[in-house]
Amino acid sequence: MKPTATCVAALLMAVATSAGACGYCVDDKVAAAYDHAVTERAFAQGHEIAFLSLDLARPATRDTETAIRNAIERVPGVDRDSVRVALEAGGLSLAFDPKRAPAGSLLNALDAAVAPLGARTALLRFGNPGRSAAGGRSTQ
């Protein structure tokens, strides 16, 4: 009976470890970096919002968030003062002008901007999760 209990305990630990290691879901990362005023201002200008995951290769310092925000704001097409970084959740958002920075080139430029800081990004979602499909702006 003892070997069975040991196997069950090991299995439960493996399941619990993998569940705990999954991190934040997409919606949590989006919510952590969402700023309604930035979103409304961007849409009024005909700009778009991008929500991205943010993975750090090394531990964050007090200056990491500021350095990432500054690097992203220098990317052509990104609206200044629109970048929101949520280090703990591993997410970020930004507004951008799709005429100046098409999505594909923007994503490449963002990764190039944060790479020297030991970070990388991945697209989570475009649009505004607060608007319904009837609003015509949210894409998932």
Report on this model:
By secondary structure, this protein is of the alpha+beta class. The chain has one domain: 2-Layer Sandwich (Alpha-Beta Plaits). Helix content is 41%, strand content 19%. The protein has a 4-stranded antiparallel beta sheet with strand order 2-3-1-4, sandwiched between helices. The N and C termini lie far apart (50 Å).
The largest β sheet comes out as: 4 strands, antiparallel
Q: How many beta-strand elements?
A: 4
β-strand amount? 15-25%
Protein structure class: alpha+beta
Unreliably modeled segments? 4-24, 132-140
Q: In what order do the strands lie side by side in the largest sheet?
A: 2-3-1-4
Which architecture does the CATH hierarchy give at level 2?
2-Layer Sandwich
Amino-to-carboxy terminus distance: 50 Å
Q: Please estimate the helix content.
A: 40-55%
What CATH calls the topology is Alpha-Beta Plaits
Shape: globular
